[in-house]
Every structure is written in structure tokens, then in C-alpha cells.
Design goal:
Helix content: 25-40%
Strand order of the largest sheet: 6-14-13-8-9-10-11-7
Shape: globular
Number of strands: 14
Number of helices: 10
Order of helices and strands: EHEHEHHEHEHHEEEHEHEHEEEE
Radius of gyration: 18 Å
Largest sheet: 8 strands, mixed
Structural class: alpha/beta
């Protein structure tokens, strides 16, 4: 695994597009998120179908074709410097195969921001475009709207990425102590498992620093998903692992035993409660950047800024 191409950083006045590749968006929250972006001196534009609802499936923000069209138009617009996802939920996997990857590649590198269901796009952008992407807060999500730490870490990553090259865990200790070097990758655990065998997923994590988290999954389902990744060989050769938030996943004591049981046998450093994902004040983590993970210190130190 090698470092990927870093998109350009943002500057005041940059135009950014907000799209909804997955679940439906609450209009009031979107409006509040757009105001925050304007406060950063950005010029946000919203895809025409962002506030749509699928006519048959209420868990989707509009039809697959419309969500894909919004995303592609935003990415291919030469005036757009970054594409920010409005929220997660479910649906990115349904639209990712509708994208014209040759056109996306021709449009050149720009920042993509999102997490949760957007894991499917993080994987696709790494495999198909070779681009660094940002696992970070989404425009209409409550954490972005309410939490200053989440806002500031994303803002710094977008505008002043050299100021956040040392990312420090917000809590926790090391399940397995040690240091490891590799290239960052990962996302939502259940989405990574769902991506297995698809044309947009990486074949493995060899040489990578795997960053994983999830929401609303009971301990036995986390066990099942990790076991699937282990049995498939997806974790063979991984260099180190950082664990983010596990919101609404039941007793953390039980979950921690599951994580230790499934991951400690890999013989690599494992850091816990790192502070990215669905938890409060989520940190922004770049995927595709060379870094060093120190599990005991709870630090991820990037080799270079996330954005160029």
C-alpha cells in the first residue's frame, strides 16, 4: 500500500458542493450547516436533489440516478474545490456503480469529506482514482452543527492541514501497545465488510493503518463482522489498527473484550477510543496518507499534510 494523491487545500472564497449520496437530509440542519460553511468564508452550493426523498424507499435521499447525478455534476464542476456529504445513513453503495469514473478522474483531484455510509466512496476513490479522502463530519450532522472540536478539526484539515499532522486520541489506551507505520484507510466497520467482493473495494489492508468504528451494532454483530474480515483475508498484513467510536453498540466492556479477542491475535499495535466516527467531537482522519500510529501515546502522526 502506497500513499495516494493529495487534493489541494481550500482557501477563503472557495466554492464547495454539498451532496446527499445516502440517506435523506433534514432541511433545517442543512441550512445550519451551510451557514457554518459560509462562516468559514466558503461558498457552498447544494445539489438539486439533496432534499429529495425516494418515492418508494424513505431511507434514501432521492433516486439512485439522481443522487449519482448530483455527485458527478459536483465533482466535475471546475469551479468546485471540494465535495462535502450532507449525511450518511444508507445508499452510497446503490449509486456508486452509476458514476462515470473516467469523467471523475478527468476532473482532477479535490477533497471529498464524509464518513459512515460514505465509506463506500472512500474505498472507491482510493481504488478507482487513487485519491486521499477525508473521513470527517458531514454538513447536516448534529455533531458538526453542535460540537466546536469537530468543526475546528475539519476546518483546520481543509484550510491549514499542516497544523493537524499530529492527531491525538480523545481518550482510551492501547489494547496492544507499540508503534506501526503504514498508509491510513478504513471507515465504518459494517460498510467495509459489505464492500467485500465488490469492484470498488481494496483487496486487503496489507501495509495499512486501519481506522475503524461503527454505530448501533451489538457486540455479537461486531464480532461477526470482524470475523468475516479475518476469514476473508482482508486484514492480512495490516500494520496497525486504531478504533474510533462505538456509539449505541451496547456495553463497552463487552465490546472491548470482543475487539481484543478478534484483533489482538494479529500481533500489531491497536489503539482504542481514538475519537473519530459517530461519537461527539469527531476528529477528521485522512485516508491514503502515510503515517505512524503510537498506540500507547494515542497519536497518529502524518508524514505530510492531508491536503497539498
Amino acid at each position: 500500500m502506497i500513499p495516494l494523491v493529495r487534493p489541494p487545500r481550500l482557501a477563503p472564497g472557495a466554492r464547495v458542493a454539498v451532496v446527499a449520496p445516502s440517506g435523506p437530509v433534514v432541511e433545517e440542519r442543512l441550512a445550519a450547516g451551510l451557514d457554518l460553511l459560509r462562516g468559514w468564508e466558503l461558498d457552498p452550493v447544494v445539489g438539486p436533489h439533496v432534499l429529495d426523498r425516494h418515492p418508494g424507499f424513505p431511507y434514501l435521499a432521492g433516486t439512485d440516478a439522481d443522487r449519482a447525478a448530483d455527485f458527478q455534476a459536483a465533482w466535475c464542476d471546475p469551479d468546485v474545490a471540494a465535495v462535502l456529504c450532507a449525511r450518511g445513513g444508507y445508499g452510497a453503495q446503490r449509486m456508486v456503480d452509476l458514476l462515470d469514473w473516467d469523467a471523475l478522474r478527468a476532473a482532477g483531484p479535490k477533497a471529498l469529506v464524509g464518513f459512515s455510509d460514505i465509506t463506500a466512496l472512500h474505498e472507491a476513490f482510493a481504488v478507482r482514482l487513487g485519491l486521499v479522502t477525508l473521513h470527517g463530519p458531514m454538513v447536516s450532522a448534529l455533531d458538526f452543527l453542535k460540537n466546536a472540536r469537530a468543526q475546528e478539526h475539519l476546518r483546520a484539515t481543509l484550510f491549514e492541514p499542516e497544523s493537524v499532522m499530529a492527531i491525538r486520541a480523545t481518550g482510551g489506551t492501547a489494547l496492544v501497545p507499540g508503534r506501526a507505520r503504514g498508509v491510513t484507510l478504513g471507515g465504518c466497520l459494517s460498510l467495509l465488510a459489505a464492500e467485500l467482493g465488490t469492484p470498488h473495494a481494496r483487496s486487503g489492508a496489507r501495509g495499512g493503518l486501519l481506522m475503524i468504528e461503527d454505530i448501533g451494532e451489538e457486540a455479537y454483530r461486531v464480532d461477526r463482522t470482524l470475523t468475516q474480515l479475518l476469514r476473508s483475508g482482508r486484514l492480512d498484513g495490516v500494520a496497525g489498527i486504531a478504533l474510533g467510536s462505538w456509539k449505541n453498540c451496547g456495553s463497552y466492556e463487552l465490546l472491548r473484550r470482543v475487539l481484543a479477542d478478534r484483533l489482538c491475535g494479529l500481533g500489531v499495535p491497536v489503539a482504542e477510543e481514538f475519537g473519530f466516527g459517530h461519537g461527539d467531537g469527531a476528529l477528521t482522519i485522512p485516508f491514503g496518507v502515510g503515517a505512524e500510529l503510537d498506540a500507547e501515546a494515542g497519536t497518529l502522526t502524518l508524514d505530510e499534510p492531508a491536503l497539498a
